[in-house]
Design goal:
By secondary structure, the chain is α/β, with parallel strands linked by helices. Helices cover about 35% and strands about 15% of the residues.
Length: about 475
């Protein structure tokens, strides 16, 4: 029986019923990695260790929620003894001495980390074209981008190599690739999952989350990924529910907000039709739609591209060629060491954002740009608070369109606008999920649901209801591409 495209729930049942052994599952997983190597979804594999762990589980079975499940880890979670590059030449030789809390939590639940997935360099990008290790490609088309920055994780799940993977979302980097690859991805409330051991891009925006085939699988992963972590001062000390407990509950009477300021008429008519069809689907399940106003929502992208580069310029200042990471050869002096190590270690998009960030934080421009952006960010959060007085969640497209061809979008500004629908949730620290909702010209498209703070259970429940009454999440590249 093939393991390709199986869910976490299905693989767990196969292992428990002895339809497949842990070792057989792991061998088949790495066969799929090899079969789809042209996707360039992985940077570093953990094959020897993974096969060893699978053999140990065959000899000594453990009754854990993720026992024996292969999971792909985004390459910005530091992993003890396993190269962690963040998609950058700067960290091409970095082997961490410890593991991120997310990695520890998942492995303590029994999962087996099969390797580190390719990503936009330091998580900066919306197409997975900025990685030092080359582009990742979307399983839905030879030259299509998978979205970014978690494109390697999304491509691995979409191709059916693994049933689940970790991602991070700073401005949409879980939800946007989930949309373009036809899978499910959730960004939890800021602080719900520990950031300890995540290589930082923008500390007030970064949030880890799961990428999987279904909302139910995301709930299973969320149960293990979430924890209060004393090592992370932004980690929330809140009760963590069982995200699978009420996932089947009906949604009769649910109030879903449609944002007045989102002008969908500017989108392709086929994209709008997919969105309208999803709306009708939710109405058939008993949900009602209410128009809400988010007056400052159209300032989200410019606000994000002030705040995020500012925090990036600060976070990436530690990569100086002195303590770890790339160091240039034969520096003449300390200044030459700094300049050449950073010039050689960082790619163009990272340099662009460091320059923008350093500019908006400089003495003459801090008040004009960074301080003002933080004030607008507060206004955006207030708008969401007001909207959630009237509705349970907010619905929008995840992306402006489907996956585009690699190399076709050369204007950085147009690339930044790919995050139009996703960045507001990051600025406000709110949870958001993307689920498959249809196709345009044979390419998948996602639907985004944004919830109030700490309402991941409701988001997963609403997404699961959609998936139990539709089959978009069951479509695969193998079955759809002729």
């Amino acid at each position: 029986m093939s393991i390709q495209y199986k869910t976490i729930k299905e693989l767990s049942l196969m292992l428990k019923s002895k339809q497949i052994s842990n070792s057989e599952l792991m061998v088949e997983t790495f066969d799929l990695v090899d079969k789809y190597k042209d996707l360039n979804a992985f940077i570093t594999l953990n094959k020897e260790n993974a096969l060893l762990k699978a053999k140990e589980l065959d000899d000594n079975p453990l009754d854990l929620s993720l026992s024996g499940i292969p999971i792909a880890q985004k390459d910005l979670f530091v992993t003890k003894g396993l190269r962690t590059t963040c998609g950058s030449n700067m960290l091409s030789n970095f082997i961490p001495p410890y593991s991120a809390t997310v990695i520890e939590n998942l492995e303590q639940a029994g999962c087996i980390s099969i390797g580190k997935t390719n990503m936009d360099e330091f998580a900066m990008g919306s197409s997975n074209e900025t990685s030092f290790y080359g582009n990742v490609y979307n399983p839905w088309g030879n030259d299509l981008v998978p979205g970014g920055s978690s494109g390697g994780s999304a491509a691995a799940v979409a191709a059916g190599i693994v049933s689940g993977a970790t991602g991070t979302d700073t401005g949409g980097s879980i939800r946007q690739p989930a949309s373009l690859c036809g899978i499910t991805g959730i960004k939890p409330t800021y602080g719900r999952i520990s950031r300890w051991g995540m290589i930082a891009f923008a500390s007030s925006l970064d949030q880890a989350g799961p990428i999987a085939r279904s909302a139910e699988d995301c709930a299973i992963l969320m149960n293990e990924m979430c924890s209060h972590d004393l090592k992370d001062t932004t980690s929330l000390d809140e009760d963590i529910p069982d995200f699978t407990a009420n996932i089947d509950a009906p949604i009769q009477g649910l109030r879903i907000g449609l944002v007045k300021e989102f002008d969908l008429s500017k989108l392709d008519s086929a994209v709008v039709k997919v969105f309208e069809d999803a709306k009708k689907h939710y109405e058939s399940l008993g949900a009602e739609f209410v128009e809400v106003s988010l007056p400052n929502i159209n300032l989200s992208v410019p606000t994000y591209y002030v705040v995020a580069p500012a925090e990036c310029s600060s976070n990436l200042s530690r990569f100086d060629g002195v303590r770890y990471g790339k160091r240039c050869d034969n520096p003449k002096d300390l200044e030459d060491l700094y300049i050449r190590s950073r010039s050689e270690g960082f790619g163009d998009e990272v340099k662009r954002r460091i320059l923008i960030g350093s500019y908006v934080l400089s003495a003459g421009f801090y008040d004009a740009y960074y301080k003002k952006a933080q004030q607008v960010r507060r206004l955006i959060k207030n708008d969401f608070d007001n909207a959630f007085d009237k509705v349970d969640l907010i619905m929008s497209p995840t992306t402006r369109g489907t996956a585009f061809e690699a190399g076709s979008m050369n204007d950085p500004i147009q690339m930044y606008l790919e995050d139009l629908f996703t960045v507001p949730a990051n600025l406000a620290g709110l949870p958001g999920i993307s689920i498959p909702s249809g196709f345009v010209d044979g390419k998948p498209l996602g639907l985004q649901l944004i919830g109030n703070s700490l309402q991941e259970s409701q988001l997963l429940n609403v997404a699961h209801n959609f998936q139990m009454t539709s089959d978009w999440h069951l479509k695969t590249p193998s079955s759809e591409i002729k």
